[in-house]
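Q: What residues go here?
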């Protein structure tokens, strides 16, 4: 199990950090969890599943979101 930082998630998804945070805040993206009082992370498996879902929706003619 691997935990990703916001910058690692942004790189993996080809999005900006601010876009990752905005989508998460709007419940359109996997939710981060607290590692410490000031540090949050995402499970890589959650991000991989989100990417897979985007691909499935694209292949079936739908968008994501």
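A:
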């Amino acid at each position: 199990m691997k935990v990703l930082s916001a910058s690692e998630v942004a790189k993996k998804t080809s999005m900006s950090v601010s876009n990752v945070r905005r989508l998460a805040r709007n419940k359109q993206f996997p939710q981060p969890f607290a590692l410490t009082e000031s540090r949050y992370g995402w499970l890589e498996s959650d991000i991989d599943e989100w990417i897979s879902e985007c691909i499935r929706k694209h292949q079936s003619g739908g968008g994501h979101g």
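A: Context that may help when evaluating the design: Residues 36 and 49 are 25 Å apart (CA to CA). The mean pLDDT is 95.
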